[in-house]
Amino acid sequence: MTKTEALALLECGVTELAYKLSISTQAISQWPEEKIPLAREYQIRDLAEGKEPLKNKVAVD
C-alpha cells in the first residue's frame, strides 16, 4: 500500500491519520511513498473496516 492509497482509503490527511494511529506526523513523513510499513498497513486496513487498530502494548512489571 502506498502512502497516498492509505490516505485515500481513510479519506483523511496526514494529521488525522497520525492521530488515528497514535503516532506523529513526522513518523508518517518518514514512510516511503511507494510502500508503507506492513504493520501500519494492517492498522489502516482495520480502521477502514471500522475495527480498532492493534496498538503496541508494553508490559510493565
UniProtKB/TrEMBL annotation:
Gene3D superfamilies per UniProt: lambda repressor-like DNA-binding domains
Any Pfam family: P22_Cro
Protein name, as recorded: Cro/CI family transcriptional regulator
Organism: Acinetobacter nematophilus
GO molecular function: DNA binding
Source superkingdom: Bacteria
